[in-house]
Amino acid sequence: MAEDTLSFERFPLGYPQFSALIGAHPTFSVSRRFSITRARLLLFKQQRVVALEKKLEELDQQEPPLNLGSIQADTNSARIEILKELDSALADYDGLLKRNTEILQLPCAPERSITSLRNWVNATGSITRKETDFLHSQDLCAVGGRKPDSVMQVESLVESIFICFRQIFIMKSLLKTFQHRSPMLVAQSEKRLFLFEGQALCTVTHLCITILIVLLLLVPMVIMQATRNNFTLQMICITLMSILFTVLMSGPMKARTAEIFGASAT
């Protein structure tokens, strides 16, 4: 991680330093989805389209069939105006629908990142409490990019291990801890923020996944070799490892059904 990314504390307390902290690492880029508000607006725009559509249908019912056979010869100004309003209302509705689709697909914000931001806010007391209430919302999403669920789960586990053993192992290149020392600090100032260097964390995570896969492949072979004279134990081993492999594929790895069948068959 670049040095300028880590030195967010050089910014003045308040929103300058808060913004620098959020920009220090992609996992800190969390925001509210406003799911309820989005649903309310979508329903409002949808009802507007429905009302205009109903007006158009009622107007069509009042017209003789011969007047509805040509768009170019249509002289009903009220119908033309309704169609223009429908076009505008649908464009507005479609725009919000597409934005909602994109926003609602964003993953939930990592709990550790939310906790770190809360710790900073509580420790410094430099941001108005009302303006940081969003950090306690259940509607937070991760804006700083997405990774497969399996990778995120393993990364979270790796982060937890590094944090638990940070006083035992020297991992300065991977784990950067910041303890605020400011005149504005309060009793909660001992809380820390944890920033993990992205590339190193990714390397360790993929190494762990590789080791797990190798163990799943080699352990059955070793057990089969050790129990080659016991058919019952071999069948139990095959059954248990197949179940474990399928559970891992369908659970943490989030593999699709076809991928699970293909991997289980091999």
For the biggest sheet, the summary is: 2 strands, antiparallel
Structural class: mainly alpha
Helix content: 55-70%
- Reading the helices and strands in chain order gives HHEHHHEHEEHHH
How many helical elements?
9
Distance between the termini: 41 Å
Task: Based on the model shown, name its key terms.
266 residues; 59% helix; two-stranded antiparallel sheet; disordered N terminus; 9 helices
Can you characterise this structure?
This protein has helices at 3-6, 15-22, 35-62, 77-104, 111-124, 149-164, 198-226, 231-250, 257-265, and strands at residues 30-32, 140-142, 175-178, 193-196. It is mainly alpha-helical and 266 residues long. The strands form two sheets. The protein has a two-stranded antiparallel sheet. Helix 7 (198-226) packs antiparallel against helix 8.
